[in-house]
Amino acid sequence: MEWIARKVDAFIGAVVIGTAGIAASQAHAFLIQYIQRLGDHLDEAKAHLNNVQNGLRYRLMSDTVRKELEAEASRRVAELQDAYHAIAEGSVVTKPFALLRHADSTMLASTWRDFVPALPATTDSIIYVVLAMILGFVVYEIVKLPVVLLLQEPRRRKFRRRG
């Protein structure tokens, strides 16, 4: 019976570790797709700012309105550029935290809606997978410990007789 329990434990542990690895690889794929979308938004914002600064339509507006639109467009470019640099140029450790810090909820939702699962084979994705597998193993062992302690038979001390 103990042999079966060990095998079931090993199987559940492998499932937890594998699931953590797969989730990390997909999280990295999501991060890459979010960065691509963010870059597209940044390019679009730069084009809009250039249009406001140099476009004929905007030159015909009053200076006050044009300056207001230019300030708004410039703010958007700066915001997107900060987010892009923080996320895209971060280290393997800081990228996920930079995404959480600079994420735009609308862009996150549209990235999730259009997300295509992938198995990226970059160094970063391999690091994420390995770290997630280690974390999955640790979490599984922590969750399993109280159950093992409850099911374990209490040890009985053996007393020697002194003669």
Features:
rod-shaped; mainly alpha
- Counting helices, strands and paired strands, the structural category is mainly alpha
The span between the termini is: 39 Å
Task: Quote the beta fraction.
Answer: under 5%
* Contiguous uncertain segments of 5+ residues: none
Cα radius of gyration in angstroms: 27 Å
Average pLDDT works out at: 89
Number of strands: 0
- Main sheet record: none
Total of helices: 6
Give me the strand/helix succession: HHHHHH
Shape: rod-shaped
State the share of residues found in helices, binned by percent: over 70%
Explain the overall architecture.
79% of the residues lie in helices and 0% in strands. It is mainly alpha-helical. It has a domain at 34-116. It is built from six helices and no strands. The radius of gyration is 27 Å and the shape is rod-shaped. Helix 1 packs antiparallel against helix 3 (63-88), helix 1 (2-54) packs across helix 5 (105-113) and helix 3 runs antiparallel to helix 4. The model has no long low-confidence stretch (mean pLDDT 89). It starts with a helix and ends in a 12-residue tail after the last helix.
Write the layout of secondary structure elements.
Elements: H1 2-54, H2 56-59, H3 63-88, H4 95-102, H5 105-113, H6 123-151
